[in-house]
Amino acid sequence: MKKITGLLLAAVGAVALGGIALHRHEPINALWIVTAAVCIYALGYRFYAAWVAARVLSVDPSRATPAERHDNGRDFVPTHRWIAFGHHFAAIAGPGPLVGPTLAAQFGYLPGTLWILIGAVLGGCVQDMTVLLLSIRRDGRSLGQMARDELGPVGGFAALIGTLLIMILLIAVLGLVVVNAMKHSPWSTATVFATVPVAMLVGLHLRRLRPGHILEASLIGVALVLLAVWGGGWVDAHPHVRGLFDWSSLPLAGFVAAYGWIAAILPVWLLLAPRDYLSTFLKVGTVALLAVAIVMLHPQIRMPALTAFVDGHGPLFGGKIFPFVFITIACGAVSGFHALVASGTTPKLIASEADVRLIGYGSMLLESFVAIMALIAATLLDPGVYFAINTGAGVVGSAPAAAVHTISGWGFPVTVQQMQSLARQMGETTLFARTGGAPSLAVGMASIFGSTFGRGFLGVWYHFAIMFEAVFILSTLDAGTRVGRFMLQDLLGHVYAPLGRTSWYPSVLLSSTLIVAGWGYFLYVGVIDPNGGVNILWPLFGIANQMLAAIALSVASGILVKSGRARYAAVTLVPLGWLALVTTVAAWQKVTSADPHIGLLAAARALAAHLAAGTLPASAAAVAPQLIFNQRLDAWLTGLFTAILWLVILDMARVCLRRLRGLPVPASAEVPYQAARPRPPALGAQWPQEDRG
Amino acid sequence: MSPGWRLARAIGRRLATVGRWLRAVSGDDAYERYLTHPARAHEGPVLDRRRFYADRERRKWGGISRCC
């Protein structure tokens, strides 16, 4: 039976992929992509994931998990697998898979689609599941601790520094995405601002009025946030109130930084926790709605399969299809960050080792599907409209007439009238040069939702989509700043012990300020950059995220070899090799390329030459020294990431070679086998209806 | 029992399952589960609802619980 289903899936998947391949030169329907994705996921889950779990990881349902051994009803709780799946998916799914695929659509729909599918099935899902199981076998230890225990202090330290840096870059680039969506858009700004008091009301409700009634409070909050979307339209239409929310990007960046700082020092119950409930509900609800709408509407993809920009001169970001499509799409294909979640809260919830396939591999498949939907939403737009929204003024000029002329010249016809009428429909004054991916995704989502559920409310749908992205970008920003603060306090504690105390107020203020200053700096430079800043920051974030994935896969490979399973090590070594290759080539090009469109140092030199020759307009000349400094700093950071990456890989190789030669290696930190209780009683009580097959 | 009635009951059961799943995933039922947990008897005094959720939030946001 299993074989017949497998063959059927393979056949349908092959037909769908064939359909995509044969329709290369004519518009294809999004359903081809959805069908191919679902079949590939199902095959990957049924066969590859099952094989990896059974053979490579030797998953053993008879072995007690930390949740069972330390069951205390608080952090260690054996949890039904579908509930743990919900927890884990809510934790890993963020704005990353929405932004990356949107940017990568400049190469056409095909490269992004293939990388999201193949990368997830063979790389990202395997990483998540492997790290989850390894952490379960080590009492739920974190990736950094596992790196230290299994490889040595070098790997552990590299993981810590890598995590801190990636956090800072991630927050900066996401902050930039929100700022670009809000600039000179009173409707978006008012709606996004309104989510802060709404979250606080939810927090107060949960703290003072009815503690713990999370569902009820979240539903009230979601209703208020939806009201805020509608209220933003009223603000936008009001001649006076409108002006209060009409800001350019620099003050908006200041608001975002101030917000991040305040959120990091406020108690979690007031802002962070309630905002997270709201964003989780909105996220899951919107993703489900989008899936239904895409299937119902089954739109045509208007972007070509491949564009001319595969040669490296794309307007959204520079660089050839290899390696940059693999850097731009990190979340959705392989995301190193997931290794931190998979070795954090989730392993303490797993009731049986048999559940790691669903929770580790399955959650990542769903995240990958979110990335596919984001790609569909970006590529169903007219390519001319897509490029007009996503290209910075520094590339096509700030005058609409010049911009449409340039973009039409690339072979993607678009007119000023078309852009104006689209902006009017969406309730915006202009959609030109709204870089960062969020606005073009919102236009795509609005057209899907509008066509499926009612044409008249495009403006409301557009701002709903902006609000939906902003809410969970701000959640990531809060949570990330807070985690960064804890890590920094941990580091500073080694210098001066009281600084390590997470509740000592001077230390809280100092470390929060340092973290916000870190990402605030990159956000500021991104805002003053006439090219939009995302073109520089996003690749840097991608390199950092893939570096973290490579660290996680190195730890996993090292453990496989150490535990005598070297013959299966290819399962993690192949994705590791691929990531090491793309990351290193991308970093090399970002640092050394002589093309200022790609190379950071070349861009700094070119800008310095223009500045010296006096050929820059006054506004550009004023910010040029800061941009030059930043490009050099980014080049050094890229070099640092690559050095950390290779340090960990070489450390892993050293441990593996010693093991294969029979020399002593750090002892395995795996907790000895303990038999699981035949049937954990907590599960029966918790989930009476379902049979655990 | 008519087929319509049976269908309605089946749908009702499904919805109840979804409701229980939502309560469990969001943490809505965490306090009830804490009260009935076997290990609680060996610990100190019972936390009240407010303290329990305050403690739960503090632990949840002490580490990396959200991703990009």
Structure description:
The complex is a heterodimer of chains A (693) and B (68). Chain A is mainly alpha-helical and 693 residues long. Chain A has two domains: 56 residues; 518 residues, Amino acid/polyamine transporter I, CATH 1.20.1740. Chain A has 28 helices and two strands. In chain A, strands 1-2 form a two-stranded antiparallel ribbon. In chain A, helix 13 crosses helix 22. Chain B is built from three helices and no strands. Chain B is mainly α. The model of chain B has no long low-confidence stretch (mean pLDDT 86). Chain B has one domain. Helices cover 62% and strands 0% of the residues of chain B. At the A-B interface, helix 4, helix 10, helix 13, helix 15 and helix 22 of A face helix 1, helix 2 and helix 3 of B.
Task: Provide tags for this entry.
heterodimer, A: 693 residues, mainly alpha, Amino acid/polyamine transporter I, two-stranded antiparallel ribbon, 1% strand, disordered C terminus, B: 68 residues
Q: Can you tell me the overall shape of chain A?
A: globular
How big a fraction of the residues of chain B is strand? under 5%
CATH class of the largest domain in chain A: Mainly Alpha
Most extensive interface between two protein chains, with residue counts: A-B, 61 and 40 residues
Per CATH, which architecture of the largest domain in chain A?
Up-down Bundle
Secondary structure category of chain A? mainly alpha
Share of residues in strands of chain A: under 5%
Average pLDDT rating of chain A = 92
Query: What's the helical proportion of residues of chain B?
Result: 55-70%
